[in-house]
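### Sample
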Amino acid sequence: MATPQLLVDKAIALEYLRHGAKVAINHLGGPNDEPLVEAFHSDAAAVAADSSTRFITVAGDISKPETGADFVARIVDAFGRLDVFVSNAGVCQFAEFLEIEPPLLSQTVNINLCGAFYATQAAGRQMALKQTPAGGSIIGISSISALVGGGQQCHYCPTKAGVLSLMQSTAVALGKYGIRCNALLPGTIRTQLNEVDMSDEKKRAYMEGRIPLGRLGAPRDLAGPAVFLAADELSGYVTGAQILVDGGLFVNLQ
């Protein structure tokens, strides 16, 4: 997995550990990540007694082309092969369209889209060309924002549409190697990205009122769908798909 969104990564990773998988997590690194990473290792140990041999964390800036390749190499060095790869890099700083400056646009595109491309390409190269048998599952975390517009997300929504398109395109490109590529499209999930925004009670109540299931999503809500897309016995004939994980928000937009 590759992302600064450690809460979502944690939920998916812990569920994978519960199912017996060996798991590696990429995180940006630096002092801000340290408490989250320490808590991550503690939670992993609580879920799996043998987590010291089944769980590793690797620091690196996913927006850099070399990070994806280095991360995949660390995974293979630790575990021998790569069968499932979840690309979840994402940043979103709300901003008015007319006020967005090039540095913000570049940062958002470089992390959300370029980072996803580089990491997915590195995973695909390993799954297709460097291991026997070839094959695997790549899961891109897109967003409901890939399907709708956002007035303060004109720099963000196109990147998530790009991730969806990347999964559709790689499904075509990598199918001949037995690699399945699919996208998860979460709705409003409480993470670090929207913590300040969702602390506004009126805004949160408005959002919850639009969701048929009546609540905002939690990182754990992505874990089950991620397990489904990872498992050949469950989703072996599913590729190029997009699965909304939004409590019904998209079908209720009007």
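The longest helix spans residues 102-129. This sample (L-rhamnose-1-dehydrogenase) is used throughout the tutorial notebook.
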